[in-house]
């Protein structure tokens, strides 16, 4: 995010939940507005210094622009229908200023496949059925009562860019968020977080392949960055 927004900016965090991103953005000096569908999330986000928060829907934003940046880090994978995702992208286009940035986060199409391998979920035949359906259609539909995430849509690496373009935005690029690093054990990742030198090395490795098309699909999350054209 910091690579796309410089100086003090007006930022809209759509689906920002309790302010996990809004908090550090405000600390960076940006004016941040959170929109989230959950009143309990909005209440927590509203208490953060420098953050304004309102209840609302990504498909019909209750705020006016222009914003320098509109973050779609929360809603896109929860909107299973393509038309709903396009509405969210179009709403971001509506409220972002010309030249402003719209980064959108999605879950990768193969995330449940790799997660099942990493956590041994795939030993359960029901999980295999869920994964096979998700890989084929993008729709992750776990049975009730399981701990296999929630109903969601999983994107192919180039899919979110196509949605952003259809909504009228110019695509800057698609980036792997975790890359292949998330396939390491939780213990390995905890150790990296506790060791600045190890974390610096890990981030360096990830940056080398963050836009490498041949490995984008291995990342559990992808970010597509787009801009509204000037003029």
Automatic annotation (TrEMBL):
Domain of life: Bacteria
GO BP terms: methylation
GO molecular function: methyltransferase activity
Residues making up the signal peptide according to the UniProt record: none
Residues annotated as domain Methyltransferase: 11-100
Keywords: Methyltransferase, Transferase
SUPFAM superfamilies: S-adenosyl-L-methionine-dependent methyltransferases
A Pfam family that the UniProt record links to this protein: Methyltransf_25
InterPro entries: Methyltransf_25, SAM-dependent_MTases_sf
Protein name: Methyltransferase family protein
UniProt source species: Saccharothrix texasensis
């Amino acid at each position: 995010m910091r690579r796309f927004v410089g100086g003090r900016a007006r930022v809209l965090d759509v689906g920002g939940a309790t302010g996990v991103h809004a908090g550090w953005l405000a600390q960076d000096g940006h004016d941040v507005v959170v929109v989230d569908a959950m009143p309990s999330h909005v209440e927590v986000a509203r208490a953060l210094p420098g953050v304004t928060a309102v209840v609302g829907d990504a498909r019909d934003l209750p705020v006016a622009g222009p914003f320098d940046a509109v973050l779609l880090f929360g809603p896109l994978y929860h909107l299973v229908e393509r038309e709903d995702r396009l509405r969210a992208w179009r709403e971001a286009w509506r409220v972002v200023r010309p030249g402003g940035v719209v980064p959108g986060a999605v879950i990768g199409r193969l995330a449940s496949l790799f997660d099942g391998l990493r956590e041994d979920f795939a030993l359960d035949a029901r999980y295999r059925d869920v994964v096979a359906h998700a890989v084929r259609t993008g729709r992750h539909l776990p049975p009730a009562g399981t701990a296999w995430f929630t109903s969601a849509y999983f994107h192919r690496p180039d899919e979110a860019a196509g949605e952003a373009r259809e909504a009228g935005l110019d695509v800057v690029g698609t980036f792997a968020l975790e890359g292949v690093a998330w396939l390491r054990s939780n213990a390995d990742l905890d150790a990296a977080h506790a060791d600045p030198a190890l974390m610096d090395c890990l981030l360096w490795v990830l940056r080398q392949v963050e836009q490498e098309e041949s490995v984008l699909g291995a990342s559990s999350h992808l970010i597509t960055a787009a801009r509204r054209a000037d003029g």
